[in-house]
Design a protein that fits this description.
3-stranded antiparallel sheet, Hypothetical protein af1432, two-stranded antiparallel sheet, homotetramer, Alpha-Beta Plaits, 408 residues
Chain lengths: 408, 408, 408, 408
């Protein structure tokens, strides 16, 4: 048995198949992938990696399994899946997910291959575990898959606490010890035992508060959009394909972006934190509904149109349209007076937090500081935005007389 | 300048009038008053005192004043008020508040006297501060009183974090550093500066989650009700009056309860944690509306009636009817797009949390373990409760055939 | 199984005999005994109790037993002993230990009685455990007794971390998780496994740094000496005997001291933190060796002599002579290259810390602020102190010309 | 003023020249340099960077300056120096220091150039600060330079606490708040005020315990030695020179090591954590004294000789000879009874910790797992080691009969 010191869970004991998986190149790669990607440009201490998070998820899975009385081969499978659940992540974690998924097709297939091949596959087979089954657990399939990926999964419990610890933002401090201990199976579905409505709510609230403060902080979104744009250029202008990209770590990608002519400017901006700023920051309600359903190509079309209208280089306009807010935790199961209920049936908080999320749902148009006014004006016109409220304060505060007139 | 080590804020620097107030008997008494009263019977680590909390409130007040640019005599007054804000608390803090206020009349007058008399008054006058003005600040009056007592007061910021630290329940971990720094005055009203809707929400959420988990935990409520009952008996059967009670510390009251024949049994039960249990735990909706507005006498009448009906000693029935839930934080002011808004106008969370609070609002009837069934049955009948849902699971689980029939 | 939330170890699961012991009056009494006695007059947040500490010791004992592979009845015994280890403590914990032991004889016999009688005895027998055996374990006897009381006991591990957490002084933050996990038995003796010399040193260092900063802080020593003196008067002037005292909790003793004429002045001083100050603070080297070995009567004789010489009331002079410094941890066993060695054989730190402890070993003479000079002068003369270095700075700084001459 | 959230100091307020320096490429580069280099291969959470550390040092410098009453231009200079103090660090922080210094000459000159040139120079001059002066402060020169670099510098205070926080090893938790506040100047020398011998000792002890547990952990040393070897090869086989190396960040170096044929194998080993192991781990006393003073060339000569003797590729032998242990903190100044003393004159701990450090001083010979025995044997012979105690347990445990004979 190996004991690893962790800044969140203190000591993590690792044993059996997990112990052997630890030494595979696939898992070691996660040491070099930041957990929160560009969020570290907002919170400088947020340099934790997918590797330590994977250890944390494994640790909480072990505790959950013990509480649920799951042992033997069954537990081994869940533990392996917990440790491996992020092994398919590309560089900068979720930052480039949309990009690589668009280009490589389903993420799930990719994880299947990753677990079947290479050293991970060999270790799994050595321990008489079928890679296919582990991949299904990673995808949250089946009774036990819910522990790894689902409304009450240990992934969420670890990342909330870990991200809070490393950013210094206290909102993610849930009572993971209690949550893990109170997990139970009712009719094959994972639920929180009687008396845990508040615990379930606290999980929901933690994510609802971490979202705008950390995960969707405007500067994190801007830098992520810049990174995504740069990486698209890399894929278009070099022999790097989406599959290769997916297997890189952060250092690989940084190095390629620096050394590729087409991406060197974005790379410099990211390195020096010389970022684009918001030309437009609009509630999505203001936006013609169609844009959300738009495919990637439509969005690029909008960007080009805005750039043309504003008379600037197309590389200077980024249109950032986040997906419709979702709230997985709202369907968490909780036992109330002996019955299993979905949290959203039970808690008035669910609806309120969903409403809050929608009210924070913003479309952004970003460009270099010098062109904010021109780009903002064009974007309002091209996207047909309701002008009132659409331009962010950075622009508004610096409005010259002309724009003031324009806005009136 | 004196530096005091605090387990929450690390180092607290204390100076000027506050430094001198620290040595007064009135403030030193707070060392012997538990911050959370009987909550320590649920959370054994929750033994922090009003004294350390007062230091914490003073510390946050100093930070707030610095951020607001308030200096000199004006700052001295607020600092004194912050340090003294709990000086009027009787033993077991809020546990006996209702009792003493009922008997002594307005709390406010009492604080006025306390600050004007004795060593506190002498110290204040030595520093050219008028006790009357400080008492007004303690009561939250005037522009600067809001810092000490109001929707965004530093009292709340300290107790949430401190209670979380000492109970081990993480829900109270707000970002007090940010909150204090973002305070601003708009048209004489204390508000959070632009961009702090989430900060305001986090404060609200913290209290909403701490409430059922800590402050209104059923065992804390039961033991508090027992302590209140015992103290009433003490006032009735000895020469201790409400005013004397108010000046006691926890040790005084414990000793008197132990040595008074009429209260020795309650005292033993509290000492040995041999507590009453819930015979009824009913949503207040189930209850004839009138009971909430009932005065103390009506409630005692109900208790006696239930006891008679159940054939038990009246001392074995406690009816606990909490006040209508309130949510001070819902009217916090936040600057949004340049305008000051009340949080409830801005955040869908306010309504949801208020609804959640109402749904957790419970009336309790408590009695010794051996008589739960009889007392529960009588209480349902006397109070005219809707039977369904009114009896708590402890009773229900142990129901004999008779009661099962009764419930059907 | 019951789960208790603890501010240090987060969740403590308690089961079996320990679960039942929890509800005994003997254990519940520990809720009302401060862990650090008068230390809270120096560190206002240090209000933790023997009860939460007992839970922590139980928790670490469970972890140690699991690591050592001890199960069944054997483990039950150690767990019971861990939970009960402080059940014999009187009010204010160690503060009055010397006093009660002097008067009641051996502490050990007392614990034997406590565990055999009352509800604790009944619970133990219900679980087929012999009170006698548990009392031996509490005394550190036998192979497994070392876990509860010995150089590497879990008592020490809990109190260092807990006292650090509650005082805010970081020096006690040892790696208890590692220490507990690395415990092993070699030839029936408890030792730390190979590779843990630093771990053992860290335990030693933690206590060496906590000692002067917390446990023997001069203000804690003064207030403890005042409490001891008051309690002696109580025993002399009332029907309270040492045995009754030993069964009191803090509230009992506070109340008795307040209501007894002979002790009311000391009580007032402690309540208002209006403490004696140091008239003399002398390295013990300066002191005629004999004083250390002196019995209690000799010390009282000295006090009277000083008071007479200074012309003050004998109640105004306290002579505080701490015992010769000891360092239990210096004999901790550690496995080094396969052999068990005592830490003092292995680590140069042991000697250095011992030397440091001796250099901090101070005799104090305390009296009310107004008489420091007179009492200090008399004490120097009566005790035959080397004048240079004997008077504390408080006195020295306020020296008038006369005393300056005297000192020259 | 900008406020940055930090996981250690919570909120850091940054203003004036520091605020402007923050946006320079030179400082932003530190975001991509791990604070502890290869230590993250031992402690997976230790991914904090020189950037957040620099912010922390700046923060503590501000607090120290406030306490010392230093203001205006003088304070600006020290604050700038604090923020910039690590700007000269190359990739992997101290890991490659010896290497780059050997090749670039004096580090100090380099910092002078760095501060005078580029955007940092421009910002400094904009604020009327002379780069030369700031570089002197970074080097610890002059009265105020001691705050930035010296026995009691804020650099040390930040890194101990930060490294403890991120590794999870508690030994570094010093009371930095107290240390910073107690700094004072006596005759132009920085010292801790009266009553702080323990504070000074705690700083010393913290580093003494962090050293073997974190900074010089054997796996951290091995991986560091491998990285150093790889980087030497890079410098020999490519156009990268020491100066270019010094300006790289971690990602740059990782990418170059991966893409250079001569270093790809070391790079793979580091990426996959497939590390060399200890063939020899000898107390330096066992070693011919001369080796310590040996220059780099002599050590390489030894390595080649061992490889030849063992019949293995020279790339498979690394001889790691750490410098003679030093203990800067031993000369910290503390005021004792009004006089300034060096800590080593005052505290018996200094000598003991120095002795402990010497007893932990080890020479290592590392090689791939398959050749440990052969390399170990040759190293013992080539270096003329005292055999007893020289071979590490990994080797010893796997000894075949031959080696057993050899050892006898």
């Amino acid at each position: 048995m190996k004991v690893i010191k962790d800044s969140v869970h203190d000591h993590i004991q690792i044993d059996g198949v997990a112990r052997d998986l630890l030494d595979t190149p696939e898992l070691q790669r996660l040491r070099r992938i930041n957990q929160l990607g560009t969020v570290s440009l907002v919170y400088p201490s947020a340099n934790h990696t997918r590797f330590e998070h994977s250890l944390g998820v494994y640790h909480l899975a072990c505790e959950a399994l013990e509480g649920l009385g799951v042992e033997g081969k069954r537990a081994d499978r869940v533990e392996a899946a917990a440790l491996l659940h992020d092994v398919g992540h590309g560089p900068f974690s979720h930052n480039l997910e949309a990009l690589t998924h668009r280009r490589t097709g389903r993420y799930h297939d990719d994880v299947h291959d990753l677990l079947a091949d290479g050293e991970v596959g060999a270790v799994l087979r050595d321990h008489d575990l079928e890679p296919e089954t582990i991949a299904d657990l990673v995808a949250g399939e089946g009774r036990f898959g819910q522990i790894v990926s689902g409304e009450l999964d240990v992934d969420r419990m670890d990342y909330l606490v870990r991200d809070a610890h490393h950013t210094g933002v206290p909102y993610g401090t849930i009572d993971h010890g209690r949550l893990v201990r109170e997990l139970t199976f009712v009719d094959g579905e994972l639920a929180l035992a009687e008396g845990n409505v508040q615990s379930a709510e606290s999980l929901l609230v933690a994510r609802a508060l971490m979202n705008p403060t950390v995960y969707s902080h405007s500067v994190a979104r801007i830098s992520k959009a810049m990174l995504r744009r740069a990486t698209e250029r890399l894929l278009e202008s070099t022999d790097v394909d989406a599959h290769t990209l997916q297997r890189m770590d952060d250092a690989d990608l940084i190095a390629r972006l620096r050394s590729t002519e087409e991406t060197t400017e974005f790379s410099r901006r990211l390195d020096h934190r010389d970022l684009f700023k918001r030309a437009v920051w609009a509630e999505i309600d203001d936006v013609p509904g169609g844009i959300i359903e738009s495919d990637h190509e439509t969005i690029r079309e909008f960007e080009r149109e805005i750039a043309t209208d504003a008379g600037v280089d197309p590389e200077c306009v980024i249109l950032d349209v986040p997906r419709r807010p979702s709230m997985t935790e709202s369907t968490s199961r909780v036992v109330v007076n002996g019955d299993v209920r979905r949290l959203e049936q039970q808690s008035p908080l669910v609806g309120a937090l969903r409403a809050a999320q929608y009210s924070q749902w913003r479309l952004g148009v970003y460009s270099p500081p010098g062109m904010l006014e021109a780009v903002g004006r064009s974007a309002v016109s091209v996207l047909g935005l309701d002008i009132d409220g659409a331009l962010v304060s950075e622009v508004r505060d610096g409005l010259d007389a002309t724009l003031d007139q324009f806005l009136e």
